Amino acid sequence: MTAPTLETKYVFTITARIGDVVTAGETGIGVRRIIPIIGGEVKGAISGKVLPFGADFQTIRPNELIDLEAKYAFETDDGAIVYVENKGMRFGPVELLQKLKRGEPVDPKLIYFRTVPKFETGHEKYRWLMEHIFVGSAARHADRVVIDVHQVV
Fold it and tell me: Helical H runs in 58-120?
């Protein structure tokens, strides 16, 4: 017997608007940055709005690899609150990562930015979010992060 084949299917896109970066400085394992999440939208199989609180907590390693952990929530159009913990990494050529840091545009295809979002909600209609694994393909822009969320089936 063999294990089931892994496949994914696109479910929705989260666009999280972000505020100004707060830097805590070099911590011994990298530079700690905190990026506030100030709103946004969810579109696709689920639609709604990203709530204006939460943050992305990042550690930028000496080789510019970025470990990230974002914690925030969104509200669906029918009133359900969904809490999100999204862990991931972003990596690419140093000169392109530095451009992103300065808020300059970079083609998202040139940067490896993947995440593993986990969802929590008490709303029965969206409990399926807690019963599956999801992966995200993301892009960083000057004022927002766009994450295409795919369900692992």
Answer: 94-101
